[in-house]
Amino acid sequence: MLTFRKACWTFTCMIKAMRIDIITILPQLLEGPFNHSILKRARDKGLVEIEVHNLRDYATNKQKQVDDYAFGGGAGMVMMIEPIDRCLQHLQSQRQYDEIIYLSPDGERFDQPMANRLSTLQNIVLLAGHYKGVDERVRQHLITKEISIGDYVLTGGELPAAVVTDAIVRLLPGVLSDETSALTDSFQDDLLAPPVYTRPAEYKGWQVPDVLLSGHTQKITEWRQQQAEERTRQRRPHLLDDENDN
Which of 6, 40, 81, 222 is deepest in the core (most CB within 10 A)? Predict the structure, then answer.
């Protein structure tokens, strides 16, 4: 009979690794996030492949130009369609992609349900924008989805790409040592996570709630649910409104 550890290892080996390809003009910005902590362990276990592609490698001139002035004038440069199309054609010649995603301030707001959905896919592309954005024809003809991580503007799409990747990868089977941990994160059930405490039970006169020290599982569960609802009501009331609308 297989031990529990060996059974988990066997199950993990049967899962085909998710593939995330990131297209960027600044690949150096993504070296750190993917080579440490949970993301590194997920890659080392073969649970996810993360490949970063330098868009300049697909430029057609000696200057490796990937941007140009906007038609009609105005400040700022625009990412050209041709290098992006050449890169995507190269990637798509090797595999089929479930989503080709452009990281943009005016894309669909990224949230936990979206991370959950994306984590069930096999292959995705993340295109990191820069300057004034990409030629509109990229958005009209080459990508399948647009994502924003918030209503603000960053220098480029590399940090959003790292955020989206982290949120997706931690949900993959076998990535977290305790897979139930991801299921109790904030937003998984339209609630914020309840307060958490650890040792010491008393510090500078500040006490851990007695219920958490009681050992009474049902009371602890009820307390956590109540605290989650109260924290959500105070800090993210729209989550409760959305739940009531459903």
Answer: 81
